[in-house]
């Protein structure tokens, strides 16, 4: 193997941009152990690949005060869209996900130690719940910002997040980290213990972690505007309310729901993890890792907004018994039945209590492998592994309302309901119930890989990897029977239950054409029990133009197979934030019926990256990377843009009216959003990274700047570039992270900032201001036992930008920091 320049060594480290104060460096020399690098199955010595990779190591995670994996990832400039997490209070069931390039959480593959992680959450989930992976077990996170289906198969369209856990650990380490906001809420605590020991044959590492996060109420932030829901605790009939004189008049006030809704949701997690490496006498090595996480989480919102359509006595086809009688005062107030003889009654059921959703999830994963060498040719390495993952969840919805019983109760107790007075205990007990659901996911993977060298060229050996894999995925979700029957005031939903199998074979070849030019070629074939077959390929080139400059490019195809929920999910309702162009709806949350399709095909994609790595010899310690990227998805499995459909139907497009089941005069009673294969995405941009390490004024300095410039993000005919909204999240033109670290010996101080550029509201066109968050942290190493970390996040207490079509508190919490200034501190004890 030829000697590598300083530049190649830096690329091997993953310059490959890193967002960390510390960099994971490769060592030079012929004795370096061959390892597998994220984005390739070929084991190599120099870690040099054509694909851009960001590396975030454990020291950076600790210094920045990150308490969850999703927080680590969503702070990166390459993330966009609206990945759910700790600030998602409505509908996410406490899960946390990653959204690379804003292309959707189900298009980013999550690996644990290079092997797939089981999808997890409340059941039949389409992506990995990052809550299942405790921060305490992470050695580093590698983010491959390139399409990788030819290497890893489905779901890697936008890239790969590979979480590498701590191993080869000796001794005992105990960490305690805690924090809170300057408003005395949002407390968090993390305790972890790590123990490892080595023998003549291997190493065994075990860990325990406990994490607790307290909630933050929307009403406890001054910038949150009071809510103005049309659902009032005293009720309204046909949009009218009783005044003090007993007259029915137009509703002029709204209900402030922000006092009863979380801005940051509470959560408690318990984890146990282990890693083992054992070498047998016959040079066969066993590797295994184990992970179990229990999550108990909660979301809370204002009492259920209940709406029922009531039959009016005396109208055509209305039964004489189960109906309401319109009093002369109601008629005088303008209350009148519609063409079906019905009037709408709305009530915020404060008498019943706040909606409280609880989840108890258990996620289990075990992966074991045997690896060894064959005395064939120049030697070949083999690896056989089995990975099993299982997730199960129980969820409860307290103080839910049975709409069917509520309707009957109104017929039976008209005066009690329409008086505006509090409801009796008997009525409350009759109409309310505890909503109970359960679900889960399961995964089996058997994999075998053979690595080695084929033959020698003048510039070095041609390396290869060839492998096969069998995978079985299944999932189920059982909503409460009341919801399945459509009797709840929450949206109707059908059960989900299904599975599929896939058999895959793949190969990779790395060819050193010259000392300066290397090619990487991958080909993969997958055979699914559902939609059929898929073939994907990747071609990558690296060219060391000079000792200081390397050029790299990758072209690849990819695919994403439809998951269990997309294939077998049945119908489900969702209250989406929409604007009714006809003006018939009283609230921005409009019920949309989501449908799935067992005949969905796989998505197909093309990706292209081209960039450079520059490490000027005249500036020691500096490296620069710049990469252009583009991803195109065809036959995307997507729900159409309902807002665009509403607007088109309103403008007279009959096809849009038919597609979304919009009735005459804008009747949205059966508004539907189907899953189809007619969607597409086309996104492109530029990533830039600068790292510089130097000594000055007696201190060691490290500077890092990570920038993503979004050129375009277009989906299904809508240009989201530079826009933000409550349904799709944010696609800022510019996102940038900057950090500078200064230290000497036992101490270091880090200043960092995070910039999210100006955007435009996708629905209203309003300007949404840019934000710049400032952070400070310090670390002091007292001795070989004690190390302390202190920090402040969002030092200047910057408020989130106002988003008119936001989904919570007048903004989009998945994009901006809504919690405010936070203080944190941690201590590490190592023996």
UniProtKB/TrEMBL annotation:
<dbReference type="InterPro" id="IPR010917">
    <property type="entry name" value="TonB_rcpt_CS"/>
</dbReference>
<feature type="domain" description="TonB-dependent receptor plug">
    <location>
        <begin position="47"/>
        <end position="160"/>
    </location>
</feature>
<dbReference type="InterPro" id="IPR036942">
    <property type="entry name" value="Beta-barrel_TonB_sf"/>
</dbReference>
<dbReference type="InterPro" id="IPR039426">
    <property type="entry name" value="TonB-dep_rcpt-like"/>
</dbReference>
<keyword id="KW-1134">Transmembrane beta strand</keyword>
<keyword id="KW-0813">Transport</keyword>
<protein>
    <submittedName>
        <fullName>TonB-dependent receptor</fullName>
    </submittedName>
</protein>
<dbReference type="InterPro" id="IPR037066">
    <property type="entry name" value="Plug_dom_sf"/>
</dbReference>
<dbReference type="InterPro" id="IPR000531">
    <property type="entry name" value="Beta-barrel_TonB"/>
</dbReference>
<keyword id="KW-0812">Transmembrane</keyword>
<dbReference type="Pfam" id="PF07715">
    <property type="entry name" value="Plug"/>
</dbReference>
<keyword id="KW-0472">Membrane</keyword>
<feature type="domain" description="TonB-dependent receptor-like beta-barrel">
    <location>
        <begin position="362"/>
        <end position="795"/>
    </location>
</feature>
<dbReference type="Pfam" id="PF00593">
    <property type="entry name" value="TonB_dep_Rec_b-barrel"/>
</dbReference>
<keyword id="KW-0998">Cell outer membrane</keyword>
<keyword id="KW-0798">TonB box</keyword>
<comment type="similarity">
    <text>Belongs to the TonB-dependent receptor family.</text>
</comment>
<dbReference type="InterPro" id="IPR012910">
    <property type="entry name" value="Plug_dom"/>
</dbReference>
<keyword id="KW-0732">Signal</keyword>
<keyword id="KW-0675">Receptor</keyword>
<feature type="short sequence motif" description="TonB C-terminal box">
    <location>
        <begin position="814"/>
        <end position="831"/>
    </location>
</feature>
């Amino acid at each position: 193997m030829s000697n590598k320049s300083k530049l190649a060594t830096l690329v091997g480290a993953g310059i490959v941009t890193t967002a960390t104060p510390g960099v994971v460096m490769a060592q030079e020399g012929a004795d370096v152990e061959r390892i597998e690098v994220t984005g390739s199955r070929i084991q190599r010595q120099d870690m040099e690949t054509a694909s851009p990779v960001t590396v975030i190591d454990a020291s950076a995670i600790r210094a920045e005060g990150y308490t969850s994996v999703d927080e680590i990832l969503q702070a990166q400039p390459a993330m966009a869209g609206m990945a759910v997490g700790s600030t998602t209070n409505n509908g996410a069931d406490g899960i946390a996900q990653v959204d690379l390039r804003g292309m959707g959480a189900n298009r980013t593959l999550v690996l644990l130690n290079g092997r797939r992680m089981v999808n997890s959450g409340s059941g039949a989930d389409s992506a990995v719940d990052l809550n299942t992976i405790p921060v305490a077990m992470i050695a580093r996170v590698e983010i491959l910002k390139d399409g990788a289906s030819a290497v890893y198969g489905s779901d890697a369209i936008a890239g790969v997040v590979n979480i590498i856990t701590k191993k080869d650990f000796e001794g005992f380490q105990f960490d305690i980290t805690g924090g809170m906001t300057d408003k005395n809420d949002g407390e968090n605590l993390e305790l972890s213990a790590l123990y490892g020991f080595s023998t003549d044959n291997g190493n065994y590492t075990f860990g325990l972690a406990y994490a607790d996060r307290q909630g933050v109420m929307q009403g406890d932030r001054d910038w949150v505007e009071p809510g103005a829901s049309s659902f009032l605790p005293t009720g309204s009939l046909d949009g009218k309310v009783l005044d003090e004189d007993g007259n029915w008049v137009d509703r002029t006030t709204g209900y402030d729901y922000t006092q009863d809704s979380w801005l940051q949701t509470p959560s408690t997690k318990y984890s146990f993890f282990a890693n083992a490496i054992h070498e047998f006498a016959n040079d066969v090595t066993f590797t295994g890792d184990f992970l179990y996480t229990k999550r108990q989480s909660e979301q809370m919102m204002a009492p259920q907004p209940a709406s029922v359509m009531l039959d009016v006595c005396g109208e055509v086809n209305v039964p004489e018994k189960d109906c309401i009688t319109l009093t002369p005062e109601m008629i005088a107030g303008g209350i009148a039945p519609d063409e079906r003889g019905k009037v709408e009654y709305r009530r915020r059921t404060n008498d019943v209590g706040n909606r409280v959703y609880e989840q108890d999830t258990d996620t289990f994963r075990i992966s074991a492998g045997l690896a060894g060498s064959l005395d064939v040719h120049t030697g070949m390495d083999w690896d056989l592994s089995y990975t099993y993952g299982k997730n199960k969840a129980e969820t409860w919805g307290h103080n839910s309302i049975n709409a069917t019983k509520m309707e009957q109760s109104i017929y039976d107790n008209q005066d009690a309901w329409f008086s505006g007075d509090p409801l009796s205990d008997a009525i409350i007990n009759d109409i309310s119930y505890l909503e109970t659901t359960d679900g889960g996911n399961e995964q089996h993977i058997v994999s075998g890989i053979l690595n080695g060298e084929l033959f020698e060229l003048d510039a070095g050996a041609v390396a290869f990897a060839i492998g096969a894999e069998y995978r079985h995925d299944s999932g189920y979700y059982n909503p409460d029977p009341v919801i399945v029957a459509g009797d709840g005031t929450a949206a109707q939903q059908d059960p989900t239950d299904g599975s599929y199998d896939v058999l895959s074979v793949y190969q990779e070849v790395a060819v050193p054409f010259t000392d300066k030019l290397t090619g990487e070629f991958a080909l993969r074939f997958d055979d699914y029990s559902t939609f059929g077959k898929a073939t994907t390929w990747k071609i990558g080139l690296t060219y060391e133009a000079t000792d200081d400059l390397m050029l790299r490019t990758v072209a690849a195809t990819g695919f994403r197979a439809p998951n269990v929920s997309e294939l077998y999910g049945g119908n489900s309702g969702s209250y989406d934030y929409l604007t009714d162009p006809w003006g018939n709806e009283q609230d921005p949350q409009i019920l949309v019926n989501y449908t799935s399709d067992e005949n969905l095909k796989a998505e197909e994609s093309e990706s292209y990256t081209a960039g450079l790595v520059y490490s000027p010899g005249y500036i020691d310690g500096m490296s620069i990377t710049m990469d252009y990227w583009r991803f195109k998805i065809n036959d995307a499995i997507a729900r159409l843009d309902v807002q665009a459909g509403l607007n088109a139907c309103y403008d007279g497009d009959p096809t849009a009216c038919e597609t979304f089941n919009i009735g005459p005069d804008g009747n949205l009673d059966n508004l539907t959003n189907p899953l189809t294969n007619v969607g597409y995405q086309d996104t492109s941009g530029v990533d830039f990274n600068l790292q510089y390490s130097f000594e000055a004024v007696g201190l060691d300095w490290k500077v890092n700047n990570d920038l993503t410039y979004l050129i375009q993000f277009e989906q299904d005919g809508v240009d989201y570039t530079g826009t933000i909204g409550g349904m799709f999240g944010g696609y800022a033109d510019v996102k940038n992270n900057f950090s500078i670290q200064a230290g000497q010996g036992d101490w270091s101080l880090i200043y960092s900032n995070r910039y999210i550029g100006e955007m435009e509201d996708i629905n209203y066109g309003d300007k949404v201001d840019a934000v710049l968050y400032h952070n400070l942290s310090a670390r002091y190493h007292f001795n070989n036992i004690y190390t302390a970390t202190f920090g402040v996040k969002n030092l200047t207490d910057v408020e989130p930008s106002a988003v008119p079509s936001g989904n919570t508190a007048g903004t989009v919490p998945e994009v901006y920091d809504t919690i405010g200034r936070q203080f944190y501190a941690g201590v590490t004890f190592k023996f």
